[in-house]
Amino acid sequence: MSPSTLTNPLNERLLRSVGVAPDEAEPADLMQAVAQLARPELSERWVETQAAERTAKSRRIYYLSMEFLIGRTLGNALDALGLRSDAAEAVMEHAHRLEDVAEHEADAALGNGGLGRLAACFLDSMATLGLPSFGYGIRYEYGMFAQDIVQGRQVEHPDPWLADGSPWEFPRVGIGYPVRFGGWVEQHGPNGDEVVWRPGGEVLAKAYDMVIPGHGTRKVSTLRLWRATAPAHIDLHAFNSGDYARAAEVKNEFENVSWVLYPNDSTPAGRELRLRQEYFFVSASIQDIVTRHGAEHGRLDNLADKVAIHLNDTHPAIAIAELMRLLVDAHRMPWRSAWALCRKVFSYTNHTLMPEALETWPVALMQHVLPRHLQIIFRINHEFLLEAAQHRPGDAEFLRRLSLIDESGERRVRMAHLSIVGSHKVNGVSALHSELLVKTIFADFASLWPERFVNVTNGITPRRWLAQANPGLATLLDGALSGNWRLDLDRLRGLKAHASDAAFREAFAGVKRGNKARLATHIELHTGVRLDPSSLFDVQVKRIHEYKRQLLNVLHVVTRYQAILADPQGSWVPRSVVFAGKAASSYHMAKQIIRLIHDVAAVINNDVRVGGRLRVAFVPNYGVSVAELIMPGADLSEQISTAGTEASGTGNMKLALNGALTIGTDD
Ligand code: 26Q
């Protein structure tokens, strides 16, 4: 074998950057070195893309999200940069497979589930489409907890994903913004309309970028994550007084804002730290956006022509009040003009219909943390209710339902209402979900502004979920289809022509069989449960939630078990039922469901009478990387949520794309 074109560069990286002798390199060293081969190219493409967008004065998309569930970067970067085969050859010369090397990268698990992964898939798509775009979020020091199973119970471990550093981060040393909290508001001037916010505290938001490469293009997108640090002038204070321990403590009080991801999907935490997190990253992002706009255009009246800010659920909704504050208080723009701009700039995606999952904040808490923003929200509400009253004069109930403030008990700010009033478009994430939105929770708003509500069905990136996760199927498709399905998934329609082609079907079955064997190996290694790759792999993988009904699936397993015992000679198709998913740490019922799955598995897997016709496995620590292993190995995709409760689902799409048949409710 002739040496790969990357052999020398790889050895040079090992020697000169990673700090190991090339012939002593371990897989983890090779991972570092390969990442460092990709990094300069990412850097160049980033600089090039930024320069082009600046020169063109492009309109940009800013995707604000508390979560980005990125997973690993190495494989995706190598594919996007066209370096995969050379890199694979170069590490092979060190007697290692690229897949094994890649496993030494920690997942960037800066999200809970569907909403966070959607954000990551959108970044890949925006980069690939060459759309000028930024994702903005938080650089959590600790991501989604790691799940361990001990005696059938979930045990959570912290996820220090940055412990060894990340080879993909670009710290932007020059970019930082102060973010202020608390204090009080003063009103000056003859009409009291000169407002001064006297904050009680401040943190510094520092920018860390991840470059998101597009596929089939040199264009990249940027994921800019903010880290909270103490402003330089603060800890000096304590330091001067000689109390070093206290100074360190104070530093922690500032930095805890970006310390950890809330591991709660769908039920809002309602904690002050969560509100601080939301405002922290929103304020830094809005300052960054307005600063960039100012540098490029030198005026603000054209903001809506150049800036589109998208809210991934209501978590960043305070951005609406923050932009108003910046325009009105800092840039002295008249309220009416600022509000007109705001409504054109923002759009909002809703991800849930379940009322208990809608985010609200106590007015008292918001008064304490963000007094000026609360004042702005009250004024938005006042003017909105005047407008709404003209549609249905005298209907006080209507106004009570629409109000940004829920006054039924302790007064609370309804973040979804703020998001709708402050946006020009509101979307649901599937046809059914969008239809239900305007018929149920947002019916009153839809009667006011029917054209504001639209559907944008979710999607997934075929680069990660097919090309990278399932190389066997990818190769098969490359041989069978014309054009590049990686960039145009409609090309898969070409498969119809092969539907009754025996050789193609056999090849497909061979790929599936190989993927199932790979999955079975992983499951045996991590759980001790041995699955037969020739059995039917029946898969339900997603966060554990009552509405998703893993419980229904377990009951079916029990039913099947009893049916097999009752009819041992029946013609049973051997079946392996695979579960995976995390329970929110405070969600007792979800944790009980995990225990039940393990108890049922222990009974069935140890009953010799079943004779391999039914087995149950729970794959621990479900996340992006585990999903990349499970999706290609599934035969049957379980989508059995109570109808009308799963807004869209995206795991369903990953399983379908990898050739699993869906069994589902009418959801
Ligand atoms: C809110 C406040 C405080 C703490 C946590 C949260 C929080 C965090 C995450 C609330 C909700 C989430 C995540 C929701 C989510 O993932 N929803 C899913 O979004 C997917 C993408 O649109 C859909 O496909 C799924 O149907 C939907 O459940």
SS-based structural class?
A: alpha/beta
Which residues form runs of ≥5 with pLDDT under 50?
none
Q: Note the gap between the termini.
A: 53 Å
The molecules bound to the chains, other than polymers, are:
ligand 26Q
Oligomer: single chain
Strand order of the largest sheet: 7-10-11-4-1-12-13-17-18
- Mean pLDDT over the full residue set: 96
Q: Main attributes?
A:
25 helices; 667 residues; binds ligand 26Q; 23 strands
Structure report:
A hairpin with a 5-residue loop joins strand 8 and strand 9. The chain has 667 residues and is of the alpha/beta class. The strands form six sheets. A nine-stranded mixed β-sheet has the order 7-10-11-4-1-12-13-17-18. Strands 21-20-19-22-23 form a five-stranded parallel β-sheet, sandwiched between helices. Helix content is 45%, strand content 19%. Ligand 26Q binds next to helix 6.
